[in-house]
Amino acid sequence: MNALACLAEAFAWLIRPGIRRFILLPLAVNITLFAAGSYAAFHYGDALVASLLPGWLAWLHWLLYPLLAVALLILTYYSFSLVANLIAAPFNSLLAAAVEKAERGEPAPADTPLWREIAASFAQELHKLLYFLALALPTLILALILPPLAPFLWFAYTAWCAALQYLDYPMANNAIRFREQRARLRQKRTDTLAYGGAVSLLTTVPVLNLIAMPVAVIAATLYWCRHLREP
């Protein structure tokens, strides 16, 4: 699995000279948002979960309470991850450009005004978000029709979205449109889903989820340079 090898190597790039400075701000965004998410989940979660349990289900409180609490925690972290990706998008593009420059040993691309980078990144993030929402609908329908397959369908959906989320940064830096990105990644579907699945699992591990974003961007850029980029 080429993509998984790149993901494993990406951890060593976090402390590499010339790369660290591009990681600090996304890392600060992640820490701040996950701390806020954890506070919100634990401070308000207890009252919210209790309000979701009707009185006639009090006898199942011991079973339903943990399930609702875990579901709420996952939803909170997922929501804050979306916000973190939106805020950090311009800096993730800069990180991808720095990693590609170091990997290929080529001169850095011409500087683009920061405001233009931010505007382009926000537009691209909204484009991806609309695509993810549109893809969620048929996934939900299939999950309702085939309940036994629901966990596998949602895991495949999450893996595909995570792969597109992070592989977009190096590919967009090289003027690859989102439609073409999807076409290229479908040609390497196994590697793409393995990478996306591993990144999704990484975001659920406490502490590691704080560095999941820069690690995913670095791994995506290495995978792009070594296995996706045309000669």
From TrEMBL:
Membrane as a keyword of this entry, yes or no, is: yes
- Spell out the GO cellular component terms annotated for this protein, sorted alphabetically and separated by semicolons: plasma membrane
The UniProt entry lists the main location of this chain as: membrane
InterPro entries assigned to the protein according to its UniProt record, in alphabetical order: CysZ-like, CysZ/EI24
Q: How does it sit in the membrane?
A: Multi-pass membrane protein
Q: Which GO terms describe its molecular function?
A: high-affinity sulfate:proton symporter activity
**Matching Pfam families:** EI24
User: A GO term (biological process) for this protein?
Assistant: sulfate assimilation
Q: Which residues cross the membrane?
A: 22-42, 62-87, 129-146, 152-172, 193-224
Keywords, sorted A to Z = Amino-acid biosynthesis, Cell inner membrane, Cell membrane, Cysteine biosynthesis, Membrane, Sulfate transport, Transmembrane, Transmembrane helix, Transport
Q: Where in the cell is it found?
A: Membrane
Query: What name is this protein filed under?
Result: Sulfate transporter, CysZ-type
Organism the protein comes from: Cardiobacterium hominis
